[in-house]
Amino acid sequence: MGRDRGSDEGFTIIETVTALTLVVITLAAAGPFFIQSFQAVARQRNQQNAVQLANMAIEQVRALKGSSLLTDRSSAKVKAQFSAAPAIVQPYLAKTFPSSDPLLSATSTSGDDAAVPTETRTLLWDGVNFDRTIYVGSCDVRVSGDCVGYDPDKNPPSWLNTPDDLQFFRVVVLLAWNNKGCNAGRCQYVTSTLVARASEPTFDIYRPSPTGPDPKQTAVFYKGFDRSVQLKVEGGQLPNTWSVVDTLPAGLTLASNGVVTGATTAGLLNQDFRFKVTEAPPLQRNVTFAVNFQIVLLPTVTVGTTSSRVGDPVSVQAVGANGWGTKTFTAAGLPAGLSISDTGLITGTAATAGSYPVTVTVTDENQVTGTANFTYVVYPGLALAAVPDQTVAFGSAVNVTAVASGGYGTYTYAATGLPLGVTLNSSTGVISGVATVPGRYLPAITVTDTLGNKATQSFALTITTTTLLSFTSPNPLAPDQTSASGKQVNLKATDNGSALGLSPVITATGLPPGLTLNGASGNISGKPDTPGTYVVTLTSTNLLPPQTSVLTFVWTIT
């Protein structure tokens, strides 16, 4: 019966031997790779350890006073150390002068046991021996640039040891250790730093001796007003203790902490008083100095005008007196539309009539205040109702009333431009009487209240006649004129004199500049040159029989 070749009967001896041979060959090939990897890791670890040891040495050097870096380092040892330095260190030492302890003799050989030793020390770290050498020398910088060492006995630069000279110690740290991965089996790491050669500052745990302030302090007090003022002193070991040398003004006392309090009853004063200040133990230094005392009155404020009319602009200055220094002002209760500035100027326009209780406060530099309380009255605006134009036949009585409203107190009426025979009652505003001269008039009525406020209205009053002298041109019913500035004007003034068999002469007052009247012809001509509104009165006069007529109108020049 034959063997079933499709079944799995395992590996033959030859196959097994072949597989093992391949594994051995693979492992043999990978061995150098693993060895080199382990060596690289070890080399990198040693490099990191060297960096750490070098940094530790730098920090130890920085922990020392700059002036102690050379202590016990003799000139002989330093020069020998610099001469024996390996090539990797030479670039650093080339710019460094081999300074030594100036207190040692020229024959001294100390240095190996110095705080910064001149000998090489071996440090065991992570199973590896590291040889550490620390080099110390001096170098100088002029404001900026590289730090270079100069031999003071061999023509040093002129700026050496001057205020321009920035003086340093250069500290170079060398770490060396054995490792086959480095050149000649010896690895090296170098780092350096600069340390100031300037003298170490001396710190005094005590504050400066107490001194009086400069300029001299001024302490302000107000007669009859309780106040505290902290006197000032500079320096001194706290707490400072105050005492009085001169007797203080009546009502004032000094506490040991320098606070003067009280409500003085003394009169106005400007005087220096001396005080003694003693600092706390152990030194207990003291000083005596003067403080200027000023005793003044409390600030006050006055306000002049305390009333106005609705719609009238207001500008009232509140005035501060007494107190100390610059003063500022505030106000409460002012009518809507009014406000006060920091300097005390009340301005604005009151919007609503009424009585308003107001408080104005003045504050001086020491925040001491004074107040003024008063009632601010806003009166209704004074108004005079328009008087309707009046036309009255000659010989008939004129009777019209001017009516005022608002304002304050009693009214007084006055008028200008009324015809002869017509008068105004100053108390009632009634205009009455019989005009003796016909014509057209433009009387102005003015009313004044008790406070002196005024209001004015004008109206046209025409006295007509058909039998007496009167103007016919300009039209007595609408005589007002409007002309352009610089343009030629020709206006004929005529009357009915010829119809009445009269020979009147016409005159004029109030003509715009540039216009003239020909009295014989009655012609007004010329070029007006000043824009404005002018009240012109034409008068026609006949001598025998005596008759007069007036025509008043408004001439506007645009």
Automatic annotation (TrEMBL):
Stretches that traverse the bilayer: 12-35
Gene Ontology MF terms: calcium ion binding
GO biological process: carbohydrate metabolic process
GO cellular component: membrane
Matching Gene3D superfamilies: Immunoglobulins (2.60.40.10)
The keyword Transmembrane appears for this protein: yes
Keyword Amino-acid biosynthesis: no
Entries under Pfam families matching the protein: He_PIG
Keywords: Membrane, Transmembrane, Transmembrane helix
Name of the molecule in the record: Putative Ig domain-containing protein
Species of the source: Paractinoplanes atraurantiacus
